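Session log. Operator J.P. requested a structure for one protein chain; no other inputs attached. Running the standard single-chain path with token output.
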Amino acid sequence: MRIIWCSPSQRPDILRCRKGAVAAEFVLIVPLLMLFLFGVLQIGFAVYAYNGMVTAARTGARQIVFGANAAVAESATRAALPNWVARDAAITSVEDDDGIARVRVRVSGRDASLFGLVPMPDTLVAEGAMPRVGDR
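Structure written below.
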């Protein structure tokens, strides 16, 4: 292996000296790649949490449609939520006059995030709605 030394005395070769260029490029690129990676993870985690919230809201609406009271529907909704979201979720259930049962799940954006690197909305809201069984 031949080592090429770059010294200030070699003025004609100073422009061809690439010693340390890879390290400098690495230092410039890696933080951007890490920010991109954590941003993708954050967005994926938020979408996963929102999908779990929608599924839980549909589960609660299904409970109301089949005759369960609001407490049972809320319990079923909390059981269907992901664990890290279920603690601080606000669950409301409403049955409209037109025979549609609606369950709304509201979670703080901070609770649905993995990292604090990507801005999140203040709250994530998911709603599940189902028509009453006798109305079909």
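Operator note: Residues 21-65 form the longest helix (45 residues).
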